[in-house]
UniProtKB/TrEMBL annotation:
Native source species: Sparus aurata
Listed GO CC annotations: cytoplasm; nucleus
Keyword Nucleotide-binding: yes
SMART domains named in the record: E2_bind (SM01181)
Enzyme class: ligase
Name recorded for this polypeptide: NEDD8-activating enzyme E1 catalytic subunit
């Protein structure tokens, strides 16, 4: 099934602010005329810092793109960068080749990698970061990365350490675009409650209101397979190509019936690109700060200001409180970290300091350590030797930084 998410991340770096006479004269007369109309005169919506100028920014000259996917046949619709001959090649490389050969003076550097493969020294070099990621975990990771780059002096944020993040996302016929100034405006984790925990799709969605390709697959797998018994009493085998083909075909029929495609994809992209232009040029006041749109029935769009959360675990610099009685088991703390709507961690690793030594209380990602620390889950906090006010350091794939919690014993 076609994936409906754009999984590209564009980083705009060291943008030239020339009037069009550099780069070996690759600019021609009139190349930037349309952009100049925005940059050379003020208007009622221009940013207070804006100074109309013929020297203004004329284009994005250096863009890095990070993407870990290769092109599938189903990716060929709704986009203009990939051709049938590119199937199997990395998306980042094909996108870069296409733009490099088509836009004189613009250099795109591809990275066929995960965003998590790069560290802070890589991300620090960019002026703006645009995300079209397909997962909340990846969004939170990038959000955490940009927050980790902020520098504070006596508790005051140094504005030059802020790298704006433009985030776009689509789901079925709905989309959103938001502008995040890390440390200043609401970050991804400030509004984490807006994202429902994604574990299982509600049965009513699967049975009667599918919106995503996944819902169609679940419909074929959970409802149609046991009813139609295409291979007799055999249960579905994920390694059997015939079984998968059957589920795939049924899911396709279901998707066609509910017209499931990603028509909002282009609108999300257009909105994100406009916001990058506004931030880079100061020509207009950026989106403040969250735009949603919905084309399920007609077209509806709405903008609101997502507010910062005072005690956000990602951007507030406020130590996070954990309230538990000494008789609570470590398992309960783990469940809180994963189930709390404002934390939604995935596989938290909990460490602390006991008698001056670092101690891992629980860690899932390494099998041998998981087995060794698993018995701790059934122990109470008291039995583990933890005391009131104890600091717990929690690492998770949702952030590149360790989150510090302070244990407050309740009675
Ligand atoms: Zn936040």
């Amino acid at each position: 099934l076609p994936d409906i998410y754009c999984i590209l991340m564009y980083c705009v770096s060291r943008m030239a602010v020339d009037g069009g006479h550099r780069d070996g004269g690759c600019d021609w007369d009139g190349r930037w005329n349309h952009v100049r109309k925005f940059l050379e005169r003020p208007g009622p919506f221009t940013h207070p810092d804006f100074e109309p100028s013929t020297e203004a920014l004329s284009g994005f000259r250096l863009i890095h793109v990070v993407d870990m996917d290769t092109i599938d046949v189903s990716n060929l619709n709704r986009q203009f960068l990939f051709r049938p001959k590119d199937v199997g090649r990395p998306k980042a490389e094909v996108a870069a080749d296409f733009i490099n050969s088509r836009i004189p003076g613009c250099k795109v550097v591809p990275h066929f990698k995960k965003i998590q493969d790069f560290d802070d020294s890589f991300y620090r070099q960019f002026h703006i970061i645009v995300c079209g990621l397909d997962s909340i975990i990846a969004r939170r990771w990038m959000n955490g990365m940009l927050i980790s780059l902020l520098s504070y002096e006596d508790g005051v944020l140094d504005p030059s350490s802020i790298i704006p993040l433009i985030d776009g996302g689509t789901e079925g016929f709905k989309g959103n675009a938001r502008v995040i100034l890390p440390g200043m405006t609401a970050c991804i984790d400030c509004t984490l409650e807006l994202y429902p925990p994604q574990i299982n799709f509600p049965m009513c969605t699967i049975a009667s209101m599918p919106r995503l390709p996944e819902h169609c697959i679940e419909y074929a797998r959970i409802l149609q397979w046991p009813k139609e018994k295409p291979f007799g009493e055999t249960s579905l085998d994920g390694d059997n190509p015939e079984h998968i083909q059957w589920v795939f075909e049924r899911a396709q029929e279901r998707a066609a019936e509910f017209s499931i495609t990603g028509v909002t994809y282009r609108l999300t992209q257009a909105t994100c690109a406009t916001e990058v232009f506004k931030i880079a040029t100061s020509a207009y006041i950026p989106l403040n700060n969250y735009l949603v749109f919905n084309d399920v029935d007609g077209l509806y769009s709405y903008t609101f200001e997502a507010e910062r959360k005072e005690n956000c675990s990602a951007c507030s610099q406020v130590p996070q409180d954990l309230q538990f009685p000494p008789s609570a088991k470590l398992q309960e703390v783990l469940e809180y970290l994963t189930e709390s709507a404002s934390l939604q961690m995935k596989s938290p690793a909990i460490t602390t300091t006991l008698e001056g030594k670092n101690k891992t209380l629980y860690l899932q990602s390494v099998k041998s350590i998981e087995e060794r620390t698993r018995p701790n889950l059934c122990k109470t906090l008291k039995e583990l030797g933890l005391s009131d006010g104890q600091e717990l350091a929690v690492a998770d794939i949702t952030t590149p930084q360790t989150v510090l919690f302070k244990l407050n014993f309740t009675t």
